[in-house]
Structures are given as structure tokens and as C-alpha cells.
Amino acid sequence: MNYRHAYHAGNFADVVKHLAEVAVLTHLAKKDAPFAVIDSHAGRGLYDLGSKEARKTGEAHAGIEKLKNLPGPLLLQRYLSLVAESGAHHYPGSPLIAARMLRPQGRLVAVEKHPEEAALVKDVLALWRKARVETADGYARLAALLPPAERRGLVLVDPPFEAPDEFEQAARTAREAYRKFATGIYLFWYPIKSDAAGNAFAGEILAGGARKVLRIEIALAAAEGKLGRAGLLVLNPPYGFDTDMAAALAPMAAKLGAQTRLDWMAGGP
Ligand SMILES: C[S@@+](CC[C@H](N)C(=O)[O-])C[C@H]1O[C@@H](n2cnc3c(N)ncnc32)[C@H](O)[C@@H]1O
């Protein structure tokens, strides 16, 4: 295992991904109908921003730590208050954010391949009866977990992109997942090393036939060799998601010194 999210938790890309997660879960929790959250690459769930990993890269310092007490619209405030629940020196990962937003009608399945990380996220989620952790390959498990019995939910796919063929594997998995659960809301996160690579990944996912796809990108001036740009493909975004995200991202991006871009790749508002 090379990739460890502890080096990157709370960075410029994490905050956008988690803001989008909060926007989707706010929407799902509005109705009484049951919903499922499936997090295929869950990580450890809670990150110590004072750890040697976090201090080594300083990514959270240039990310979430700049956003504390930032004024802005409701979505931004909701996200920041969920982060603040972990205390000033910790940052919640996607499964913990989801667990905190589960309503009685929601449940969470968090899949994490690496046993050490999986053991940690199990501890973090131990208080939530409706949250389950699987120590498994998230790509393989998605096929089995979809469609969820509730036929309503969020699927978050957030791989480390460390294997040479991981873009292909992620895109293949995305197409297969969409085929099984075409009404689900999906968040696919990916790093952008070049326009061509980012567009190719988005194109591979679009080839699965999704009819409503919003792309969100964030870019930050980064040191040589460091990731400075990331994307999020949102399949079936709920009504109003694009305007809520744009409004919350504006103050965030200004504070981070980042640029963000939202564009519809298929369908529209
Ligand atoms: C980018 S991190 C996830 C961060 C998390 N989603 C969050 O937002 O807090 C990717 C995680 O995927 C795990 N991982 C790597 N390969 C995996 C696989 N095939 N299936 C499931 N998890 C995997 C890594 O150990 C790492 O914890």
C-alpha cells in the first residue's frame, strides 16, 4: 500500500468532494423514503491534522484550516459545522460525514481494502448502528452492492489512483455501477494531470450512457510534482445541486486562492 489519505485529508480537493457529499446527503435526507450511501474507497474516517503525515505535506493547512469560520451560504455552513464536530485538530473523512448525516431512513456501507484503515474506520463508525464497514475491494464490491434495496442513494467512488490502470478500472466500474443502478446519485473523484487525461476519464464514464452529468473542477497553484487539480463527476445531481455548489464554492475558492469550474457534460439543470 503506497497511498495514504492521512497525507492529503482536508486538502483543496477533499473539501470540494466533501462539500458535494453534504449537498447530496442533505437532499436525500429531505424525504422520508429510505436511502443507502455506498462509499467504495472509504479511508480511515477521521484524520489527525497534527499527525506527522499531515504536517509533512501541509495540505490541510492550505485547505480546510483556511476555511474555519468562513461566512457563506447554508451548504457551506452545514459542511463546516460537520467538520467542526470533529474538533479543531481533526478532519472527518467521507464515511464519518455520511454517518453524521444519516437519518433513521438512511444506512451506510463503507468499503476499505486495507485492513489497518478498515480497522480504524470500524472504530470511528462503531456508534452508528446503520453504518457497516467491509474490508474488501471496493471495485468488486460495488457490483454486488448495487442496486441497493432502497433504490435511492449516493454512491461515492474515491480511489487512490495509484495503480497504472486505475483510471480504466474506475471508469469500467463506473459504467457497470450505472448500468445496475441508473437512478443513483454518483460522485466520482479523480485527479487531473492534464486536460486530455481528465477529459478522457470523463468521456469513458459518459460512454456508460448517463444522461445527467455535472463536472466540477478545482485548481490550485501547486509545487512541482504535487497535485494541483482535481475533478468530480456528479451523475444524476439532485435539483438545485449545481447552484448550491456554485454559491458555496465561490467563497471557498476565494479563500483558498483556487479556481473552480462547473459544467454540464450531459443533460442540464
Ligand atoms: C482517497 S482515499 C479515500 C478517502 C475517503 N473517501 C474520504 O473522502 O475520506 C482512498 C482509499 O481507498 C483505499 N483503497 C485502495 N484501493 C482500494 C480498493 N481496491 N478498494 C477499496 N479501498 C481501496 C485506500 O486505502 C484509501 O484509504
Overview of the structural elements:
With 269 residues, the chain is α/β, with parallel strands linked by helices. The protein has a single domain, classed as Rossmann fold (3-Layer(aba) Sandwich), CATH 3.40.50.150. Helix 1 crosses helix 4 and helix 1 runs antiparallel to helix 10. The protein is globular. The site of S-adenosylmethionine has 19 residues, from strand 4 and helix 7.
> Can you count the helices?
10
The CATH topology comes to Rossmann fold
CATH superfamily: Vaccinia Virus protein VP39
Strand content: 15-25%
Task: Give the SSE layout.
Blueprint: H1 12-29, E1 35-39, E2 46-48, H2 52-57, H3 64-67, H4 74-84, E3 90-92, H5 94-101, E4 106-112, H6 115-124, E5 131-135, H7 138-145, E6 153-157, H8 166-180, E7 185-191, H9 195-206, E8 213-220, E9 229-235, H10 241-256, E10 258-266
Parallel strand pairs: 1-4, 1-6, 4-5, 6-7
Antiparallel strand pairs: 2-3, 7-9, 8-9, 8-10
Helix pairs in contact: 1-4, 1-5, 1-10, 7-8, 8-9
Residues 3, 5, 17, 41-43, 93-94, 111-114, 117, 137-139, 158-160 line the site of S-adenosylmethionine.
